[in-house]
Amino acid sequence: MSDSHTSIAVIEARGLVKRFPGVVALAGMDFELQAGEVHCLVGENGAGKSTLIKILSGFYVPDEGGVYVDGEPMQANTAAAKAAGIATIHQEHNLVPNLSVAENILLGDWGGKSGIVSKQAVRARAKSALDQVAPGIDLNAPAMALSTGEGQMVEIARAIAQDARVVIMDEPTTALADHDVAKLFTLVNDLRARGLAILYVSHKLEEVFELADKITVIRDGQTVASSVPAAQLNTQSVVRLMVGDNVNMYEHVPRQRGEVVLEARGLSRAGAFADVDLQVHAGEIVGLAGLIGAGRTEVARCIYGADRLEKGVVYLDGKKLTLRGARSGINAGIALVPEERKQQGIIPGLSVRENTTLSLLKQVSHWGILKLGIERKLAQKYIGDLSIKTPTAETSIRSLSGGNQQKVIIARCLASNPRVLILDEPTKGIDIGAKAEIHRLIEQLARTGVAVLIISSELPELLALSDRVVVMRRGRIVGELDRAAATKENVMSYAAA
């Protein structure tokens, strides 16, 4: 980490207030970012982190307060932010899929005279920027062909090409494999050494303490700890600042295991997995571990019925299932919380109420007529039971934080009274407080006799929750470990051998 006490302030937010219908997202927030430092911003989902980022990037206009660059007020628009040297790397790719890497690096700034763009000049400028970040990436490749890690490197190269002074990284490791995370950290350290100001937002406190020079904690739209040197804080103190008290973290409690509920025999799907045998008992949490691409998600989707099996049989309570689409799984008593929340779990244009009952229309209708009273009562029950933070049940789900969107998806699953609950990356992109709540909820479900199968790329999470861990590698099960034997070293020895 750098010694940034002599750095000059590059960007400041003073007294920011931002209101949305029914919500005050920022309530008089102050923030300061200096050159040559990594400043980590942490807070629960809904604390105001995304709103601050969008104001600093010029996407939102604050209702009160302002943003200052080198002490001078910045106009609230994206052009002004770009001119000030502010670049944002979002959680999800912000690349044009059909354009080349070179074209994406210089997107909107291709130069040329009289509207004529020189491909040779574009390539030369893009190569200069990319060589500083990831020289192995093909400049001519279409963006759609890039991996998640490569896409992030291209976005960082774009920031360099734009002579960015401030780089904002919003949950940059959410979808990265471990080797890509290591590359990103190396690059962050390099950018800091060059004198850039890095605003790094993450729910993963181990990342925060590895990278941060300073930490700012926000809660309910206000700054509760500002620019504190990372060396003066620890994980517990940051969590306490985030949630206002010591968070009640999940602790594993032994449970009585019942009969086999879910059994998979000889499951195969060409190019994805082969000869998978798996059992989950009543009241048991089984973790499905493996590196990205091992086939875990593909197995889960086939058990649920979302994807077609080519070989093998799935049994529920000893009864052979005929799986022809997700409806088959739902009717059989299997519920799935999918990996990609935004693409597979919610319909952004619908309300919290409608998303909660999306797959439960039989429960909330009669003779094909929707019974709004029943639907509202069901949605309200789970808003209370799961402590979903939403102004009302009629609020659009797209306006909720990621953690609360995930709770709505889980609520939908619970309302179907499943015998088997499959959770694929259930806490991806979710803050510590919401994560602890979801962990406790999973344990409570298992205690009622639900058979739980969980997939998580966060190995500490998987080890904390699971009674057994089944490890996949290259589409096959290569190991099974009981709780005592399921250490990080043992799991990785199977997963990466």
UniProtKB/TrEMBL annotation:
Residues 11-245, 256-497 form the ABC transporter domain. GO terms for cellular component: plasma membrane. It is found in: Cell membrane. Coiled coil: none annotated. Keywords: ATP-binding, Cell membrane, Membrane, Nucleotide-binding, Repeat, Translocase, Transport. PANTHER family: CARBOHYDRATE TRANSPORT ATP-BINDING PROTEIN MG119-RELATED, GALACTOFURANOSE TRANSPORTER ATP-BINDING PROTEIN YTFR. GO terms for molecular function: ATP binding; ATP hydrolysis activity. Pfam families: ABC_tran. It is a peripheral membrane protein. Its main location: membrane. InterPro entries: AAA+_ATPase, ABC_carbohydrate_import_ATPase, ABC_transporter-like_ATP-bd, ABC_transporter-like_CS, P-loop_NTPase. It comes from the Bacteria. This is Sugar ABC transporter ATP-binding protein.
